Amino acid sequence: MTAAKITHVPGAGACTRTPDPFQPPHPNHERLRCRQGTLMPEQNLFKRHLLTRRIPTVRVLSVALLLGAAIPAHAQYLGLNLRGDTGLKSGSQPGPGYYFALPLYYRSDYSTLKLPNGNTAPGDYGVGVGLLAPVVAVTTNWKILGANYGFQIVPTFMGNRQSLAGGAVEKNLGYGEADTYIQPINLGWHTKRADFLGAYGFYAPTGPRTLDMWAHEMVAGTTVYFDDAKSWHVAATMFYDINQRKRSRDIKVGQYMTIEGGVGRSFLKGVASTGMAYVMQWKTTNDSGADIPPLLPRGKNTAYGLGPEINMPLFAKGKFMGFVGLRYTFEFANSTNFQGRNLAVTLTLARLR
Question: Global pTM?
C-alpha cells in the first residue's frame, strides 16, 4: 500500500508534416494532421524516384529523434506502492484498538535515473517526492477464520508525483490530493513464535496528483520471533499490485510486487524496537496499450533499499498511547528506475481496547 502503513505498534504529441508528394495520403492523416502535398512535374521523374526512396527514411529518423528527446528509451511507467513505507514487524497486525498515524515527514529524494544495465543515465533526474498521508486503522475483536478483522483508510497528498521514470522530470508540482488507499479486509493471526497477515486493498484515483488508474493490492506477510519473549524478530510482507488501464489514455502499467520488512529487536517490554529495514520492488509484467510511445521499451524496472529503523513510545496513559518511528532506506542496484533515499518519520496515536 502507499503511504505509512500501520502494521505494528512498536509508506510528440500530434505532428504536422508534409507527406511524400508521390505517395497516397497517410491512412492516419487525421491523427498526424498532415497537409496534402502537390505533385511534381512529369519531367522530374528521376528526381522524384530519388525522393521517394529518401524521404521516408528521413522522416522515420526525424520522428525517432523527436520521440527520443521527449521520452528516453530507458523510461518506464511507475506504480502506486511507495518504497520504504513499512519495515520492522511488517507482517504483524496491531492489537485490537483504534490507530491514527501521520507521517510527520516522508520524502523520497531521487538523485539519479538508472538504465536497464544499472548504469546511471546522463542528465538531471534529481527530484524530491513528498507525502502527507494520514492513516486511520481499526483492529477489532471479531474473528474470521481465527484471525482478528481490521481495516484501513489512507487518503494521500503528494508533491512532485512522478508517473514515468525518465523523460522530463517535473520538479515544481506542489502538494495536492493524490490516490486514496482503502483496505477493507485486514486479517491478523498471532501464535507463540510467529504472526501472520493477509489483506486486500485498492487504490482509487481521487485527486489531481494521481497516476490516473485504479489498482487492486493483495497483501501477505509474516513476522517470525526467535525467542519466547518475542524480542528478536524478522519480517517480510508482500504487496502485489494489479494496475488497471489509465482512465484518460490507453496505457496499462505492468503489475508490481513489493516486499518490505526488517530484522530487529524489541525492548521496553516490547513497545520499542530497532533494527534494519529493507525493501525490494519488481515490475512483474510489461506495460501495454496503444498510447505507449513506440520507443519506450517493454521492460521491467527494479529497486532495492536497506537502512536503519527505530520506534519509540512517547507516552502511555491508560488505554491511550503515542509512538514515533523513523526509517531511512538507501537504494541501490536499481534498474530502469529512479534511485535515491527514503526518509519516513511517523507519529502514531492509539486507543487500545
Answer: 0.79
How far is 208 from 221, CA to CA, in rounded Å?
A: 32
Place of cell 512529369: 42
With H, G, I as helix, E, B as strand and everything else as coil, classify residue 172. Answer: coil
Q: Are 90 and 186 in contact (CB under 8 A)?
A: no
φ/ψ of 60, rounded to 5, equals -60, -45
Give me the CATH code for the 76-352 domain, please: 2.40.160.40
Cα distance between residue 47 and residue 24, in whole Å: 18
Give the Å distances, CA to CA, from 154 to 78, 133, 272, 293: 20, 6, 24, 33
- What number of other Cβ atoms are within 10 A of residue 124's Cβ? 10
First to last CA, the chain: 25
Residue showing cell 529523434: 65
What value does the mean pLDDT take over residues 62-87?
66
Instruction: Characterize the bridge pairing of strands 97-114 and 337-352.
Output: antiparallel
Cα(239)–Cα(261) distance, rounded to whole angstroms?
11
Q: Transcribe 186-226 into DSSP letters.
A: EEEEE-SSEEEEEEEEEEEE-STTS-S--EEEEEEEEEEES
Helices (H) and strands (E) counted in the chain, each on its own, are 2, 15
Helix (H), strand (E) at residue 321 = strand 320-335
Are the beta carbons of 250 and 228 closer than 8 angstroms? no
Residue 66 has pLDDT above 50, yes or no: no
CB 84 within 8 A of CB 342: yes
pLDDT-derived band at 238, boundaries 50, 70, 90: very high
H-type alpha helices, the chain: 29-32, 45-70
> What is the C-alpha to C-alpha distance for residues 198 and 193, in angstroms, rounded to an integer?
17
For residue 293, with 0-12 CB atoms within 10 Å meaning exposed, 13-18 middle and 19 or more buried, which class applies? middle
Q: 220-230 burial by CB neighbour count: b if 16+ within 10 A, else e?
A: ebbbbbeeeeb
Domain ranges of the chain: 29-70, 76-352
